Each structure stands twice: as structure tokens, then as C-alpha cells.
């Protein structure tokens, strides 16, 4: 009886996530169509920066330690101006969401995950001082997991080493391998995004920007297989700099 209740709860949760997933798809599609067809001022630029990602995951093995790791972010930023303080922002690009797993011995794994990233958000701009604007935005994103590299130290059970006293132990070796995706990997990720930025107008048609980003995943990194599966969510912060051209 209890197992049936747990299965029902997880099943209902999965259906809610699917409905939110479909809603986010619709918002992204409508926003991109609106940007492409609207006849108004548009700013286009390039951003590049550094990410810091952590994996939200409850490990049943208490000897395992999850640590955040740095990566990179690069994207094309498209800003469609709606009025003097509001605009619609899209930023297709590439983002890394890396993390590491260690235990109490010398064994560890560094996991570098690369995604195609498609965020869309509404941005509010406030004029701070002459040539400088402050803005904040919030919206949603869709990411597709395209590559994963694993490197670290792992035990080689086929090789033993002996110490001076004659005791044998399993030899540790360096590993570096491209992860081969399986059916259990959920390569489609979606969630919410928030940004804070400071813009500086260099000349009338060109400005630079420094941004703080946060991407909060609402989808599990693995597909639902059992009702007792522990979900894994990426939580990614980033800082980037960019340069933009204003088109009237």
C-alpha cells in the first residue's frame, strides 16, 4: 500500500513537470517568433564568461562528496526593445555545467557537461547615471546536453600493487573518457533564469555589458525509471561580459 502511494506521488510530480515543460516550449517559441517579426529597435551582441555549477543530489553513500566546478558560457544576445524600460531578450549559445565527485580516499571524478542553451526572458532597464544603465531580467530556458567528459582517478581492479611488507592493494590510475549517452540520460533540460546587468554606452550605437546569470534546473538529469529515484538538478551561476550593436 505504501509503495503504491509513493509511486502515485512520483507519477503525479512527473506529469506536472511534463505540463510545465510543454508550457515553457510554448513561451520560448512565441517569444522567438515575436522577436523575428516585430518591427522595432533590436540590439544584438556577443557574451562570454565563466560558469560555476553544482549538482543538487542526495547521495545515499555518505562517503561521496559533490563539489561545484567552473566552466564557460558564450552566447549571442538578442534584445528586442518594447519601450524605453522593457525589452524581450533571447540568448542562444553554449554553456558548461560541471561538477566533481570525490570520496574519502584519493578517488575522484571531474565531470564536464556541455549544453546548447536557449534562454528567453523579459528585461527591465533603469537609467543609473549618464551612459550607464542597470537592468534585471527573468524568464525560462531550454538546454540540450551535447557532450560529457569524465576525468579523474579510479581503481583498476585488474592490477594489484605490493608494498614493502608484501601486502597487495588495488592500483589507482588516471582516467579520461567521453561519456556515451544512454537511454537513462535526460539530455533535455529546462528551468528558470534570472540576470542582473550593468550596461555602459560607449558610443551612440555600441555599448558594453557585464552580467550575472543564474540558471535553476526544474528537470531531472536522469529520466524517471523508478518511483524511488533520487532527482539530480543543475544549479548554475555565471558572470559574463559582452559587446552590443544597436540597430534601429
What's the CATH class, please? Mainly Beta
Q: Kindly report how far apart the N and C termini lie.
A: 64 Å
Helix proportion: 10-25%
Order of helices and strands: HEEEEEEEEEEE
* Strand percentage: over 45%
Please indicate the count of domains. 1
Gross morphology: elongated
pLDDT averaged over residues: 81
Q: So, CATH architecture?
A: Beta Barrel
Structural class estimated from helices and strands:
mainly beta
How would you portray this structure in words?
The chain is mainly beta and 248 residues long. It has a single domain (2-247), classed as Porin (Beta Barrel). It is built from one helix and eleven strands. It has one helix spanning 2-37; strands spanning 42-56, 65-81, 86-90, 93-96, 99-102, 108-129, 132-162, 168-178, 188-203, 206-217, 233-247. Strands 1, 2, 3, 4, 5, 6, 7, 8, 9, 10 and 11 form an eleven-stranded antiparallel beta sheet that branches. Mean pLDDT is 81; it is low at 1-18.
Amino acid at each position: 500500500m505504501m509503495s503504491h502511494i509513493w509511486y502515485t506521488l512520483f507519477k503525479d510530480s512527473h506529469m506536472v513537470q511534463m505540463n510545465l515543460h510543454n508550457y515553457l516550449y510554448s513561451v520560448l517559441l512565441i517569444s522567438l517568433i515575436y522577436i523575428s517579426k516585430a518591427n522595432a529597435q533590436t540590439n544584438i551582441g556577443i557574451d562570454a564568461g565563466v560558469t560555476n555549477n553544482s549538482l543538487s543530489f542526495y547521495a545515499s553513500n555518505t562517503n561521496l562528496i559533490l563539489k561545484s566546478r567552473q566552466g564557460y558560457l558564450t552566447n549571442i544576445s538578442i534584445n528586442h526593445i518594447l519601450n524605453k524600460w522593457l525589452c524581450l531578450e533571447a540568448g542562444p549559445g553554449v554553456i558548461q555545467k560541471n561538477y566533481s565527485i570525490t570520496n574519502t580516499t584519493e578517488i575522484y571524478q571531474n565531470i564536464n557537461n556541455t549544453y546548447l542553451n536557449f534562454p528567453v526572458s523579459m528585461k527591465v532597464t533603469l537609467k543609473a547615471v549618464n551612459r550607464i544603465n542597470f537592468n534585471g531580467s527573468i524568464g525560462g530556458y531550454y538546454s540540450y546536453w551535447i557532450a560529457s567528459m569524465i576525468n579523474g582517478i579510479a581503481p583498476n581492479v585488474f592490477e594489484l600493487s605490493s608494498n614493502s611488507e608484501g601486502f597487495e592493494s588495488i592500483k589507482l590510475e588516471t582516467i579520461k573518457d567521453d561519456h556515451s549517452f544512454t537511454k537513462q540520460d535526460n539530455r533535455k533540460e529546462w528551468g528558470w533564469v534570472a540576470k542582473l546587468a550593468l550596461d555602459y554606452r560607449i558610443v551612440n550605437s555600441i555599448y558594453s555589458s557585464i552580467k550575472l546569470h543564474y540558471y535553476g534546473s526544474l528537470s531531472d538529469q536522469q529520466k524517471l525509471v523508478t518511483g524511488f529515484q533520487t532527482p539530480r538538478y543543475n544549479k548554475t551561476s555565471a558572470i559574463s561580459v559582452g559587446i552590443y550593436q544597436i540597430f534601429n
